[in-house]
Write a structure and sequence with these properties.
5-stranded antiparallel beta sheet; 8-stranded parallel barrel; alpha/beta
Length: about 575
Amino acid sequence: MRFSVWAPSADRVRVSVDAGVHEMTAGDGGWWHAEADGINYAFLLGDDDKPLPDPRSRWQPHGVHGESRVYDHGEFEWTDDAWHGRQLPGGVLYELHVGTFTEGGTFDAAIDRLDHLVDLGITHVELLPVNSFDGTAGWGYDGVLWGAVHEPYGGPDGFKRFVDAAHARGLAVVLDVVYNHLGPSGAYLDRFGPYFAGRNDWGPGLNLDGPGSDEVRRYVVDNALSWFRDFHVDALRLDAVHALLDRRAVHLLEQLAVEVETLSAALNRPLTLIAESDLNDPRLVTPRERGGYGLHAQWSDDFHHALHVKLTGETTGYYTDFAAQDAIERVLRGVFFHAGTWSSFRERTHGRPVDTRTVPGHRFLAYLQNHDQIGNRATGDRLSATVSPGRLACGAAILFCSPFTPMVFMGEEWAASTPWQFFASFPDPELAEAVRTGRRREFARHGWGESEVPDPMDPATVERSRLDWSEVEGPGHREMFELYRTLIRLRRERPELADPWLPELQVHESRTADWLVLRRGGLRLAVNFGAEAANPLVGEGAVLLAWGGAELHPMGMAELPPESFILVAS
C-alpha cells in the first residue's frame, strides 16, 4: 500500500506501519511516499521518534493523538442510489448535536429518531461537527483531524449509516465544518508544513495566502469535497468564515464554490454551501457572475437578535441596537439590521445592504434558537426557560411565515426543558482547567457569579444538555410540537409562505410594536406580542391557524388576545 504525506521542509520522513518503520522518499511539491503493508500507521519527522497521526487521516480509532488507520471508502455498501438530493429553497433545517440528541449519543441512536424529523416536516438535518477532537464529549468545534469522524459517535461507518438512513427517509444531510481554526489539543499540522498563519479568537488559523499556501488550500478544499463525494453529504455549513484571512484575488470561499459546483455536476445532485458570517455582507451569497463568492446561503443572526429582543426583552451586549421599535420590520424587509449602519456593540458602522430585487430570501437562514445562541449563554438556557408558550408560538409563526429558510434547534419544536450548555472533555488537566477558568472569567465580565456557570468539564453538564424524549408527549410540549408541525405543513402547502422575494412582502407594525401584521400574497399573519388585546386589522378571511384565540372570527375589527397570533387566508 502507498502512504503519502506533505512535509515540504522535512529532511527526513518515516512511516510506522503496524510497528514496522519505513523510510519515505521525497517526491515533487514537498510530498513524501513509501510502500508498506499494514493498516495502523503514523509519521515520524526528521530524527524525532514521536509518531504523529496523518494530517489527512480518514480514521482515528484511538483518538487524535493515536495512530491513524487505513480506511477504504469503497468498502461501505450504500443503499441510496435513488437519492438525487434536495435543493435548499423551500427547505426546513433541523440542527442537532449527535452526542446529546439521544441518550446513546451515537449516529446509530440518532437514526432511531429520524422518523420524528420526518413527522415534523423537516427536509434537511444539520449535524454539528463530527470530525475528530480530543476527548469523548464536546461541541465539535475544537477538531484537529478534519477528515476523520469522531470515534465515540460511531466513526466513519457510523456516519455513513446515518447519511444512508436519512436519505432513505427523504432527508438531506448538512454537516457543520470548521476551517477557520484548529482545536487546542492534537493540532500537529504545523509540524508537517506551513499550515498555520496567526491566531484568531479560537485558535491557530490557516495559511491561506502565504508561501506554501497552495497545498494548505487544497487541504481544505479536498476535505470539503470528500464529505460530499465519499460520505454522500448534501450540504456543508462553513463555520465563521469571517475568520478566514485570505488576501488572494480568488478567495478560498470562491475557489471552494467553483470546485463544489464542478463536483455537483459530476454527481448530478445539488451540493450546497452555507456560510456563517459576522460580516453582514451579501457578497457571500451573490453569484460569481455578478461578482460574489457564489455560496448558496448564509446564517442571519440579525433575524435572531431582533426576534430574541422582542420575545425576551433582553437588550444588553449585541442585543442593544435591536431594541429599536422597527427592528423586526427591518430584518423582514431587508435581511440585515446592520446594513452599513452604526453598530453600538462594535462601535463602528457595520454591514452592507442586500439588493432584495436580485437576492432571494431563501439564501438566508432564519432561526429563533441555535447552538451558539443557547450554548453561549452562561447557563445554556433555552427560550422555553424564560418565555411563555404564547410568545414562543408568536416567534415560531413569524419564523415559518418569513421569506427566509427556517431552521430549528433540536428540542425547540416541543419547547424542551433541558438546557444546552457548553461542555468539553479534554484529558489534559492543565488544558481542562484553562477552559474551565476561561469560561468563568468570560461570564464574570457579564455579571454572572462563578457558581452560576456550569463546569464545562463535568460529565453532569453533558447529561443536563441531553434531550429528554419523554417530554414530547407531555402537557404543553405536545401542543408546541403540533404547532411547529402545522406551521411547517402550511409553509409547504401554501406557496406564498415560502415565496423568497422580499419586495413582495408587506409588514405593518403598531407604533408601540405590540402587534405586527405580515402579508404574504393572499395570507395575513397577525401577531400580538403585548399583554393586552390588540386590534391589528386582520381583515376578513378563513382562519388557517390560530394560537391563543382559536375562537376568533377575523373581521375588520377583530381583537387578538395577549400573546397570540392568527393566520388568515383571503
